[in-house]
Each structure stands twice: as C-alpha cells, then as structure tokens.
Design a protein that fits this description.
The chain is α/β, with parallel strands linked by helices. It has three domains: 116 residues, Phosphorylase Kinase, domain 1 (2-Layer Sandwich); 231 residues, Aminoglycoside 3'-phosphotransferase, Chain: A, domain 2; 123 residues, HAD superfamily/HAD-like (Rossmann fold). Helices cover 45% and strands 14% of the residues. It is elongated, with a radius of gyration of 29 Å. The model has no long low-confidence stretch (mean pLDDT 88).
C-alpha cells in the first residue's frame, strides 16, 4: 500500500458501516466482523486507503467535503466522478489491458465521500522519476507506449461524431490569463503572446475537423497506474469532459516536459515527448530512432540540394518520418489531421528544445529611433514554421518589412540572394544600405558580397573571423549604431 499507516477505523464510525456494506454488497466479501486498516495516501490529505484485515480487500476513499464549504457541492462532485467512471467503463474499458477503476459508492453524510476500487500498480510519476533521476529511459518508454495505447483506445471508442468546440477552452484560458496578470505572475507581453497563440490555433480550420471524445480531463502523472505488460488503469476522473483528444495528449507531454526540464536539464529532453506523440499517432518510434531519423533526413536534404549553402526543411523532415513510418492506424486518422501533423511537430520540437529567446540590451530603443528615418528589413536563417512567431514573441515582428527567412527559399546566409531579396523588398540599392550582423561569415561576408555596408555586432554569439573578411564598422553596443548613422535618440 503506497501510504502511511495511521491505525484502525473505529467500529462505530459511520464510514465503517459504509465500507462494510460495500465489501458485502458490491464486492461479495463475507466477513462477520470486518476490521479496516487505514492508510493516508502519499501526497494527499483527502484520499485514504482502507484495507480489510482478514480478507485483504482494499478500497480507496476520496473525501470531497474538506474541499468545499457546501456539502451539497461536495456530494455533487462525488456523484459526477462516480458517473464519469461508470460512463467510461461502459465502453469496455474494464480489465486488461485498459481499465477504468470501478466506483463503489458515495455518501453525502460522510463528508462527501466517494469509494472506488483499489488498483495495485506503479504510478506514472514513479516511472518518470526513474527516467529523470535514475536514467531508466527504457522503462519510461514502455510506460509511455502503454499509456498512448490506453488513451488512443479511450478516445477512439468514445468519439461521438460531433465536431470539436474550442470556445469553452479559449474562454477558460482568458480567465486564467487574467488571474495571472492580476497576481502579477505574468506581464502584458506574456498575456498578449498567450492570446496570439490562442487565436492562431482557433483560426485554423483544420483544428475544428476532429470529433469530440470523452477526455480524462486531468491526465497528470498521479492519475495513471501501470500493471504488467501493457496494463494501464485510469483514476481520478472528476474533470472528465467532452473535447478534443489532444487535450489529454498535450497534458501528458507538458507534464513530461516539465519533469525533464526540472530534474535533468537534458538538452535532448524534447525527444521522448516527440516519440510519445508519434506512438500515439500509430508511429512506433523510440526517442533515439526519432533523433537518428531527423538528423539523417536533414543531412540527406542538404546533400541533395544544388545550393552552395543549403537550408533544411523541418516540416518536410517530419512529413517524411510520418509517411515512411505510418501504420494502418495513422492512415485511418482524418486527412486534415495528418496534413497538420508535420507543422505541429516542427513547432512543438522547436518550442520544447529552445533554451532561450530574448533581446540584446537596447534593441528596441535603437530600432524605434531607426524606423523613424529608415526602412528596416530582416534576413534570418530560420524555419518558416516558427521564425515569425518568435519575432512576435519578442515584440519585433512589426519593425521589419520584408522579413526574409531562409527556410522559405531553400538556402542560407551567406547566399547573396537573401540580402538582395531584402533590398528588393525595400526598393533600396545595395550602395545605400547597411547590414548589421554578429557572424563574420554568414552575415558580414554575405552582406559584403551583396554590396552592402557592413557592421559587425561583436556579441556572445556567431563566428568572429572568416578568411580576410573585415567589416566596415565594429560595435559592442547596439546604441553605437546610432552614432555611426548620426541619429539622435
């Protein structure tokens, strides 16, 4: 029993009679004088385990009363979870390998208690800890495979043919964002970014083309238990609801991301999450295979390119991985969802693996001064899937027009065509333009070859020397650029 023993339940306690009736009427355990050992479960003050001494029968009791001042509200929550468990079990999620725990009873008069069956198994959180703290990645991968199979089965069996609806989720996000701002946990820029991401996903037609399914609703590491082989049991369904299946999958991925970032700081922490997501879509690859395939396809793309400085295509890499490793399950997914998966994976991989995203000191004040007098363009080696989104995140998207992204063109800096595209977009001759960069080869050499005046920003990134290349100017503070141009702040 995963809990601390606290003694025996008194025979005259109303809970004793409640449990006695359950083991007799629901579990067919015949004990004339049952005695119940009590265990307070780890990490919880409202959930206890009760083990009958003679038969060994165990029951879990969850008390809603302490969480609500209104006992009627507590009873309503207990009844909701009871009915949710019964609902999912009607879809044959009983026994091995996919099991939803059995509800046994609830009572308003005993502190809003809900009684459910005891399932002996390893908590998902324990499997995560084995990987993050003890390097037992193989064990976690096995558990993720089992969990992915469970969620896929639950979602597929409970799809009701009704289109998904994200309006409620978007409204809830706005509520949470407002609370965080009020508590000064996030600033206005963070709130704006969350709103932008909300709208970006909501406005994509493909997001609305799946069916509603029954969701677990709280797919956290504490709410799944693992038995032998592929056996998985779901517990704690008080937040069960209808919605988009990715709600549960995204929650699991987020919990994994948080655990790896917190416990290991591993720079490849995104890989297990991607592997899990692909497994859920019927593409059974472990994280090492995903990494090997990704970088292998990237190398092939560059080798096959006729360009001197080839750019890779992240979305194309994921599209090929999906195409070459899909199964009948993957092919049976909605066409719109299969079409969207490569872009989603490229964005998710970038978002999870990115270590930092910020501005150099004085960036915005310098740009504010410059755009009053000059047109501004940007040339960046980046992927189309996330370049503009990251510029928006740091508040620079509206400063530049055009924005020339290497991922849109198939070649990278120092290819002079990128710089020429920026000049053409501004209708400015190279002789009348100045380029600022922090890499002597990709930026300064490339811009010089295109005929621009060059400024080397000597930062903590980028190559500092390349052949005999010398910039026209070198600065260590972006404000020095204003002095070079004679611009007053």
């Amino acid at each position: 029993m995963n809990g601390r023993y606290v003694g025996y339940l008194a025979g005259d306690d109303p809970l004793h009679g409640f449990l006695r009736r359950i083991i007799r009427d629901r579990m067919e355990v015949r004990e004339a004088h049952p005695a119940f050992r009590v265990f307070r479960l780890s990490g919880s003050i409202v959930v206890y385990a009760y083990q009958e001494k003679f038969s060994g029968t165990s029951i879990i009791c969850k008390f809603y009363g302490p969480r609500f001042a209104d006992l009627d509200k507590a009873t309503w929550m207990a009844r909701q979870e009871y009915e949710g468990l019964e609902t999912l079990r009607q879809y044959n999620l009983i026994g091995s390998p996919h099991h939803v725990i059995r509800p046994l009873g609830f009572s308003r008069d005993i502190n809003g208690v809900l009684a459910v069956e005891y399932y002996a198994g390893e908590e998902f959180s324990q499997a995560i800890t084995r990987a993050t703290q003890h390097r037992d990645d193989r064990h976690l991968y096995r558990r993720l495979t089992a969990l992915a199979s469970f969620l896929a089965t639950q979602h597929d069996r409970t799809a009701n043919g009704t289109a998904v609806d994200f309006d409620g989720d978007c409204g809830y996000l706005d509520t949470v964002t407002g609370r965080l701002r009020k508590a000064r946990r996030i600033g206005s820029d963070d709130a704006d970014e969350l709103s932008r991401l909300r709208d970006r996903w909501r406005e994509r037609p493909l997001m609305w083309q799946d069916q509603q399914v029954w969701l677990h609703g709280d797919a956290t590491p504490a709410n799944f238990l693992f038995g032998d082989g592929m056996d998985v049991a779901a517990i704690d369904l008080e937040r069960m609801k209808r919605g988009d299946r990715m709600f549960d999958v995204g929650r699991v991925a987020g919990e994994l991301q948080h655990a790896f970032m917190r416990d290991s700081g591993d720079r490849h922490r995104a890989d297990p999450f991607i592997g899990h997501f692909l497994s859920y879509q019927g593409i059974d690859l472990c994280r090492d295979q995903v990494r090997e395939l990704y970088f292998g396809i990237m190398a092939e793309q560059k080798h096959a390119s006729p360009e001197e400085h080839p750019e890779f295509d992240a979305v194309g890499i994921w599209r090929r991985i999906i195409t070459e490793h899909q199964t009948a399950f993957t092919r049976a997914l909605p066409a719109a969802k299969r079409k969207q998966m490569p872009l989603f994976l490229a964005e998710m991989c970038r978002g999870i693996s990115r270590r930092r995203l910020g501005l150099y000191p004085h960036t915005r004040e310098v740009l504010d001064a410059l755009r009053e007098r000059y047109p501004l363009a940007l040339v960046t080696d980046a992927q189309s899937a996330y370049a503009r989104a990251e510029l928006h995140r740091v508040g620079l998207l509206d400063y530049f027009d055009p924005i020339v992204v290497s991922g849109d063109r198939g070649y990278r800096k120092p290819d002079r065509r990128l710089f020429q595209a920026a000049l053409d977009g501004m209708s400015v001759a190279a002789a009348n333009a100045m380029y600022v960069g922090n890499d002597m080869h990709r930026d300064i050499f490339g811009a010089r070859e295109a005929g621009l005046t060059t400024v080397m920003f000597d930062s903590d990134q980028g190559k500092k020397a390349y052949r005999d290349c010398v910039p026209d100017y070198t600065i260590t503070d972006l404000r020095d650029l204003l002095a070079i141009l004679g611009v007053q702040q």
